[in-house]
């Protein structure tokens, strides 16, 4: 896989002036696709949502002041509530708290401003070229040289300077773009750093380094998980010469940001930031499991099309995520990772010296897993 072509590079067309959904994306004409919230919610549903927000506010405290204390006292409550979905109005703050990015921000005052204003990047022209390809149907990023595009450029340019070994890859724009929808530029930058350098979970930088070594590892692990949990489908993939790299690479590189409904992506990201990369494997398995009986009957071309275009009912987070959590993958992921490293010893290891020191304890990690 080519580092610089991790995402389809087709240019977006002119921005249509249509109605937008609740997240700010332009709705296609005559679209009946749900945006994650029922129309005309009942008073009972609205009251239930308000109660849920109050519970979260109590859990977080003012500006996140009570968060760490609450997590230590009630770790399984936190995990359960995150899996049910973080209230959208609190999502940006909670993401910063669970990712460790808030700590990085406080430990590095003035660093982001220096990177943006005083440093230059070899990737600047490439970033400018790609800006309009990131969420092209979202109102925040549509205006050429508007606030959204400028903020996205600043973050990507700053990161390419902060970590010159990784630099810039187009897939990173989707991560930064998502974060910008929920927090300020500086907050989004430090959350990107937390993800790529591994503030809490395993670092993601290997997904974007030359040769995409971590993506190759994840693809190998996922292929074995499919064979382990769905041997009939796994064998069908072998017979039709379908490899996960043909359909699942973007699941890992963008954490389902590239081609899945946004309301599903947000729910996946809630869990991903708290529990780590394993949820991407779990959701991937759930998608295949949901469509299993149809997929095992399809020949190569139709099979590949279906794996890149899942039906609407398969992407309902209230259906898909409980199915995903039913797959217990942690022990197998570790086993398959060790096997992969033995097979590729010396060729794909990520230097541990470049990883940030974890901001959570081993006990906390066990709870999340």
TrEMBL record:
Residues 85-276 form the Rab-GAP TBC domain. SUPFAM superfamilies: Ypt/Rab-GAP domain of gyp1p. Residues 30-48 have a biased composition (Basic and acidic residues). Residues 1-48 are annotated as: Disordered. PROSITE patterns: TBC_RABGAP (PS50086). Keywords: GTPase activation. It comes from the Eukaryota. One of its GO terms (molecular function) is GTPase activator activity. PANTHER family: GTPASE ACTIVATING PROTEIN AND CENTROSOME-ASSOCIATED, ISOFORM B, RAB GTPASE-ACTIVATING PROTEIN 1-LIKE. This is Rab-GAP TBC domain-containing protein. It comes from Paspalum notatum var. saurae.
């Amino acid at each position: 896989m080519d580092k610089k072509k991790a995402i389809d590079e087709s240019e977006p067309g002119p921005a249509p002036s249509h109605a937008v959904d609740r997240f700010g994306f332009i709705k296609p004409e005559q679209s009946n696709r749900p945006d994650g919230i029922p129309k005309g919610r009942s008073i009972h549903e609205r009251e239930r949502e308000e109660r849920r927000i109050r519970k979260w506010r109590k859990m977080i405290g003012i500006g996140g002041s009570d968060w760490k204390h609450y997590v230590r006292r009630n770790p399984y409550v936190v995990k359960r509530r995150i899996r049910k979905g973080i209230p959208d109005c609190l999502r940006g703050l909670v993401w910063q708290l669970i990712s460790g990015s808030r700590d990085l921000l406080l430990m590095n005052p003035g660093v982001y401003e220096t990177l943006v204003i005083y440093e230059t990047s070899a990737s600047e022209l490439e970033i400018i070229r790609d800006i309009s390809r990131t969420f092209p149907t979202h109102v925040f990023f549509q205006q050429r040289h508007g606030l959204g595009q400028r903020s996205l450029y600043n973050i990507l340019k700053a990161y390419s300077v902060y970590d010159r070994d990784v630099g810039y890859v187009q897939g990173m724009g989707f991560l930064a773009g998502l974060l910008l929808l929920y927090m300020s530029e500086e907050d989004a930058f430090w959350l990107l750093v937390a993800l790529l350098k591994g503030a809490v979970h395993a670092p993601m930088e290997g997904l974007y380094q030359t040769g995409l070594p971590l993506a190759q590892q994840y693809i190998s692990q996922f292929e074995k998980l499919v064979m382990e949990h769905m041997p009939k489908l796994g064998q069908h993939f072998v017979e039709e010469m379908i490899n996960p790299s043909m359909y699942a690479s973007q699941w890992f590189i963008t954490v389902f940001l590239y081609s899945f409904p946004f309301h599903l992506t947000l729910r996946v990201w809630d869990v991903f930031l708290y529990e780590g990369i394993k949820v991407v494997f779990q959701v991937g398995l759930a998608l295949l499991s949901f469509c299993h009986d149809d997929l095992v009957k399809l020949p190569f071309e139709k099979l590949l099309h279906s794996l890149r275009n899942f039906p609407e009912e398969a992407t309902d987070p209230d259906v898909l995520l409980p199915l995903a959590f039913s797959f217990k993958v942690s022990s197998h992921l570790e086993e398959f990772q060790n096997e992969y490293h033995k097979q590729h010893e010396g060729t794909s290891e990520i230097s541990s010296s470049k990883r940030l020191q974890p901001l959570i304890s081993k006990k906390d990690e066990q709870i999340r897993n």
